[in-house]
Amino acid sequence: MFDGVKYLEAQEQPITLQNTGTDLFEFEFIPKLEDRSICAPWLQIEPQKGIVDPGNVMIINFTVYIDNKGLKTIGEDRKLDEILVLHLVNGKDYFISVSGYLVQTSFGKKITDLVRMTDPVRRQNLLVEIDQNADGIVLDKESPVALNIPKELWRIVDYLYQNALLEEELFAVRGSPIDIGAVRDAVDTDGPIRVSSIHSVAESLILFLDSFPEPVIPYEHYPVCLEHCTHFANSKRTLRSIDSSHRNVFKYVCAFLREILAHSERNRSNAKFLSQVFGDVLLKPQLPEAGNVAKSTSKKRSLFVYQFLTNDYDE
Length: 315
Known about the structure:
Helix content: 25-40%
Number of helices: 11
Largest sheet: 5 strands, mixed
Shape: elongated
Mean pLDDT: 90
Oligomer: single chain
Number of strands: 10
Distance between the termini: 50 Å
């Protein structure tokens, strides 16, 4: 039903319910046995319940939208498969199959996998010597770590470096969904980045960093990073214990942000704002936080990043 679904791009398909009887019927979508929700997180149904009078029809829209939460529920084959239960009140149940596939993308991939992919993610079949990891990602066997950072990250940051250092309100203005999709397709296919707004590329950087299944600062190092959020020497020591590919990404992003700050007289940027934006992306808790705990840890994440934006770091 849904072919070629792309990350962060909604696809919609309608179905029609027709009442050919003489009495009205009431319907609702219900969870399958032992399920708590009526459908997968990547699928939305509207309406989920209703009443259809005799001789009338009702259109039900199915919308597939793959965000970071949805990515985690999709298998390595990128197939979208869901069975919905349409229940008629005082009647029987009908089963509706929803299927499709997700177009391959670098968004949502592990950093440790991306640095071993020498070709764009949609051109991996051109590799001569290939291997495949548990997630179905094609990797270059000749080089365990072929790149210091993911090439997709380099392309996005390089575009910003070339075009956005003097831009005001960078990372404060939302981009265009169409442009963001264009950036994603460009880095996934090694095509040119063409956008109508530089802010779309800036938001793409945030989305790319936020999409990693394991954050830039791995979960296991999250508590100690918060503990040392105001002690730069200890924070640097903590980074030395992090996997080199993750550490390189952190260093690269912070170096770029320091470059933005070096032009603050023109772009009016400030370290406090940038550390707030990137603190919640580069460091994330493994389990959800709420209330005062979430506010407190968000501030500490910001303070941790702030240290690396206001001090040189290249260790």
